Amino acid sequence: MTETNQTAEQGRPGLGWIGLAVLALPPLFWAGNFIVARAARGDVPPVTLSFIRWTIALACLLPFAWRYIRRDAPYYRAHWRQVVAVGIPGVTAFNTLVYLGLQYTTATNGMLLNSTIPVLILLLGALLWGRRMVATQALGLIVSTLGVAVVILHGDWSRLIALEFSRGDLIIFVAMVCWAIYTLGLTRVPASVNRLGLLTVQVALTLVLLVPFVIWEVRSGHVPSWSPAAIGAMLYVGIVPSVLATLLYMQGVAMAGPARAGQFIHLLPVYGAVLSTLFLGEVLHLYHAVGFGLILTGIVLAGRK
What we know:
Elements lengths: L2 H8 L5 H24 L6 H26 L1 H6 L1 H22 L5 H8 L2 H12 L6 H18 L5 H4 L5 H20 L8 H25 L8 H29 L1 H6 L4 H13 L5 H18 L2
Helix pairs in contact: 2-6, 2-12, 2-14, 3-5, 3-11, 3-12, 5-10, 5-11, 6-10, 6-14, 7-8, 7-10, 8-15
């Protein structure tokens, strides 16, 4: 993003109650996504869950999005590289990596790492989009990175010396990098392009890309269970975090800009701490509080003008 665009973003008007709701609901829906995916890890393999999720989402979106897709078809043909470059990290890679990571780590850890997205947006915005980073923002980046380290190392710094990391935590952190790239990439798509149509096109692309991975997963002996609980999990992830949350997030980025929209993502572990305790019986440890405190402090520092 250029300096002119950054200044324009800082000058946006207040959001109001509707704007606040638009930005506050997606983290709640995504927190539920972590909870459900962790609970269903023994019933639905990760790539299959991602594939089923987007199949349901495509069925929900296509009847409403088709006319916009036809209208914006010239843009998709002319800028197909941009559509693919934005869609792969945010729609294809992010969710699949999260589901894979939740096979090996807790939902609580996953949601804490999700809080790094605002700082990752800042860092990648500076590295890839040419946005300026002032001293307080750099300090916020350092503090948040320490928070991430606390979570990944489970508060045990001897693991750093022994190079012992949680595989699941690292996979989920890569997913967060993908979402930060997606958020910044959305700002390059013209506002005239309908977001519902754009999401539907990216979902269709995701399904095509996931097919060979699903085949590999099934041939490896990992097949889904079709129990009522598994079907309920598939329906939830296919509708609530996939369609409702993503559309609201797109609208939030358009209303508030990527940096301000990203700030609301740190609500996710707040929602998630309650949900994971109630529904998964996960225990919160001191390192969770320390890690979240550092990440949140970093976000506050990074968000200062």
